[in-house]
Write a structure and sequence with these properties.
Layout: H1 5-22, E1 30-37, H2 40-54, E2 61-64, E3 77-83
Helix pairs in contact: 1-2
């Protein structure tokens, strides 16, 4: 895992879109992003910069909670992206 949060967020978004493609979905099916960055005050602007590279609108809904640490010290962020099928 790269040590830089920018690279880690980029990997998460690339993998998320890969999974969406496998299921026939697109970024428009994302309904929520939950992020848990370590040192939120130092790292959140980097998260936003990468997010805006992939998602240019204010959607999907987004929640960010700063955490002291994650399970492995090299991890700088944990993310959960939720998508939904449309009727």
């Amino acid at each position: 895992m790269p040590g830089d949060i920018t690279e880690q967020v980029d990997i998460v978004f690339r993998k998320t879109f890969e999974v969406l493609r496998w299921t026939g979905l697109t970024k428009d099916n994302l309904v929520a992003i939950y992020s848990y960055p370590v040192n939120i005050h130092d790292n959140f602007s980097q998260f936003i910069a990468v997010k805006e590279k992939y998602l240019t609108s204010s959607l999907p809904a987004r929640t960010a909670l700063g955490v002291e640490a994650l399970e492995r010290p090299e991890f700088k962020i944990e993310m959960r992206n939720i998508a939904a099928f449309q009727d």
